[in-house]
Amino acid sequence: TTGDFNANQIAFSAGAIDSTFSTDTRTVVLSGGELSKIGAITSAAVGAVSANGWLFVGGSDGVVVLRSSTGTGWNATTGLLKGFSGFGSSLSFYKLGSYSFVRKIMVDGSNLYILTNEQLDRIALSTSALSGTLGAVTLAHKNSFPLTTSRVSFSDVIISNKLALLATSEGLFRVGNGNDITAAANEGAVGWTAVSL
Question: Percent of the chain scored above 70 by pLDDT?
Fold first, then answer.
């Protein structure tokens, strides 16, 4: 889409999509509600599993997800069609967990990863996890990270299949040989290993 993005724009100021779109909608603006409670926005990601698609937004004061009251998202089978018709009219932002100082949110396959300045968590994407108990697995935490002092902080992460690279104030770390970030049950199972630079 090119041209004037102010034309055919629809805005929602209560943190929820509460009406349908016309087929000529070109821009959707979301604000307010739970979205306004996460502070300065630092990261966003889109994830999809089976028939559901979700928008995740992280900020200095937390993480929210755009979903229905039952945890479902938009129809990911057909995707977002012309005029954003796939969004439907019953999606709102809901807070996820009790995160703060979010550095990055990313989705790789069927997992959501949330990186804060102190920890990296993995959440298996499902309607039940996003509407109830998250079931987050902590894969790195500043208090137990190898070769660190109490002043360590995390700044960025890249995840691709089994591999993860984690940038910290004490250097770059990778998943240990033979380990899998997508299946690790805890930080020890990741086997974080320093990358010599």
Answer: 97
